[in-house]
Structures are given as C-alpha cells and as structure tokens.
Amino acid sequence: MDVRRVIAEGLQMRPPRLPVWFRYDMHGSLYNDKCLKNQHYYFYRSEVAVLSSNIQEIVDTVTTPVILVEMGSGNSEKTRSVIDVLLKKQTTLTYVPIDISADFLRETSESLSRDYAGCLDVKPVPGDYNVGIDKIRTIPGRKLIIWMGGGFQNQAYQTQITRLQSLAQFMTGDDRLLVAVDVTQEPKVVERAYRDPDDDAISGVIMEAVSTKHQTIVIPGLGLSLTFDADDKLRLHEGEYVSCKYTEAQLRHIAKRGGLSLSRIWTDADKHVALCCFSKGAGKQTS
Ligand SMILES: C[S@@+](CC[C@H](N)C(=O)[O-])C[C@H]1O[C@@H](n2cnc3c(N)ncnc32)[C@H](O)[C@@H]1O
C-alpha cells in the first residue's frame, strides 16, 4: 500500500478523511484498549460473554490440527481463550496475528511466545489486512481465521465485501472464518458506547476531529496545504458508514456477496454481538 498516496487522497476529499487504520500507532492501540473499559462500551463485554459461554462449540467448528490466523489482532487478549481450547486438542499451535500496528504487534507476540513457551509458534504479520491475506494464502494447512473486536465492521461497507471475497478465494471447505459483529439496534445504546473515556462529550473526537477555528495546515511531506473553517470536520474513517450494526438478514446478505455461507451465529443475552461462523460452500444454516 502506498501510504502517502492514500493519506494525500483522503485529505483532499470533501469532507477530508483519514483511514480508520491511521489511528493505530502504539498510542492509538493503547487508547483503543482503554476505550474497551468504558462502562457503556457493551461490545467488548458482550463479545467476551459470547466467547466464554460458547468457546468449546466455537472451536469445534473446525477440525484440528489447525493454524490460527487473526485479522487485526490488537492485544490478542480474547484470543487466549481460543488458544487455550485449541491446545487441548493439539499439542502445538501456529498462530498468525496480522496487524497494522507493528510495534504493538511485536510486543503482543513476544508476550504470547513467553506465556505459551514450547507450544505456541507465533508468526506475526505486521501490515495491512491485504498484506496479511496475501501472506496467509501461501500458508498450507487448515485454518481457523478470527476477526474480533469490531475491526471488520469498522471498514467501509464495500471493503467488508471485498475482504470477505479475498478470504473466500483461498479458503477451502475445511477452513472457518469467525467474525464478531455488532447487532445492536437501539441508536441511544450505540451512541453512549462511543463516548471518549477522557471526556463527557459524545465521541466526535474518535470518529471525527472538528476544527475549532479557521486555520491552514501545511504538510510539506505530502505537498499539501489544507484550509479548515471553524466547525469543519476531518473524518477518521474512509467510508460513508462506520461501525456498522447488522440484522441477521444483512449478515446473510453480506456473506453471500462475499462468496461465503453463514453457517452458525452465537449471540449474547443482550443481543449486542453476533459471533458469525462463515465457511466456504453451501454449509448448514443454523443459529
Ligand atoms: C478494534 S481493534 C480490535 C483489536 C482486537 N482484535 C480485539 O478484539 O480487541 C482493531 C485492530 O485492527 C487493527 N487494524 C485496523 N485497521 C487495520 C488494517 N487496515 N490492517 C491491519 N490491521 C488493522 C488495529 O491496529 C487494531 O489492533
């Protein structure tokens, strides 16, 4: 990916925008972890609840031995429960975490390698999802691919579909893709969840930055000079929609467009999170 070109193009759009991944340097990754602890951020808690109540069934969707791949792995905290169950079914496990936040990924991988010494072979792939997909398509063997923490739904809608298509291209009938998505349908509950943990204001600061005055910002490295009026916004995501909330029908639709079948869904008691199991081929549809 030509990062300079992507950034320059985004900043020249109206309204100007930066891609979602741009905020994930070391500080951004740590800030993301902090946001998870916001008492109104239901997604994290519901995701943990879905995983812990169904972990055995979830892992049993794939035949072992398997290679575990994670898209946008972050701190890999929830992944540990998947690793623990897999390691009861196979003596060693290769784990391929993919994340654009290279320094954070390195630290997380080192800590996992220490904690699971002798049984976990961590092979981190620092880079964009496309880099990761190109890498995993070359790794032979059955795969369990997981995508948790809302990383999937934070992409532009068309990108969600093209990424499913890229995964479907190399997935075999034995591979499984598990994606956790938000299925909350009450707008007020959603708005509360995205408050900045350091501020009482609603989180425009997370999804968009607002110019407080008329100002011109010069970025010599990109050859750009940007003028913002007071109240002009800089979007911190690339699409029209961000952090999608899905109905089950929409999930089936997106699976079909991505060339996959939605073979199983687990939800939490509050119906906030759906952990979706996608597979290649017709698959049995249960929920
Ligand atoms: C919302 S966090 C989720 C982290 C973790 N999976 C979890 O469940 O807590 C999204 C993660 O995806 C990574 N990420 C965002 N955009 C990415 C991209 N385009 N390519 C690769 N990783 C990306 C971020 O660095 C971050 O670690």
Automatic annotation (TrEMBL):
GO MF entries: methyltransferase activity
InterPro entries (UniProt xref): EgtD_Methyltrsf_superfamily, MeTrfase_dom, MeTrfase_EgtD-like, SAM-dependent_MTases_sf
GO biological process, one term: methylation
Keyword terms of this UniProt record: Methyltransferase, Transferase
Top-level taxon: Eukaryota
Domain Histidine-specific methyltransferase SAM-dependent: 5-198, 205-279
Name this polypeptide is given: Histidine-specific methyltransferase SAM-dependent domain-containing protein
